[in-house]
Amino acid sequence: TAVAAASNVPEDTLVSATDGNHGYGLAHVGNLFHRTVKIYMPIGTVPMRSERIRKIGASVEVTDFNYDKCVDLAKEFAAETNGLFVQDTALESDTEEERRIPLYIMQGYMTILEEAFDQNPSLNPTHVFLQCGVGSFAGSLAAY
Length: 144
Hints:
Blueprint: H1 2-6, E1 13-17, H2 21-32, E2 36-41, H3 47-54, E3 59-62, H4 67-81, E4 84-85, H5 96-109, H6 111-119, H7 136-143
Parallel strand pairs: 1-2, 1-4, 2-3
């Protein structure tokens, strides 16, 4: 699982960009496994979101940039500090190695549906409502 893998990560710092939920989850994992977490957030971020992430120990920088630029900043910071770039999106310019983490994250999202169907085998929804964010969550559930 991704959580088990996180405990074996040699890098001390986990780095990402977020508008909220992904960064909160990564901060939680960092807290569990005693890792430093650096999060970049875009201009216009709701203060409550950044504070929520800070409260569990992550360093948060709300920037003057949009989300895509925050992803670039996070990737650069991880490279400069030998941190682990943990992003739930992949870029065309990413290497195969860099594309693995978003894939693992998306596979992890599928456990939500597995748990729902395990708890109610007769479940046969006609509609599923979810937040889309950058599309990783929606894409993984659609792939399920």
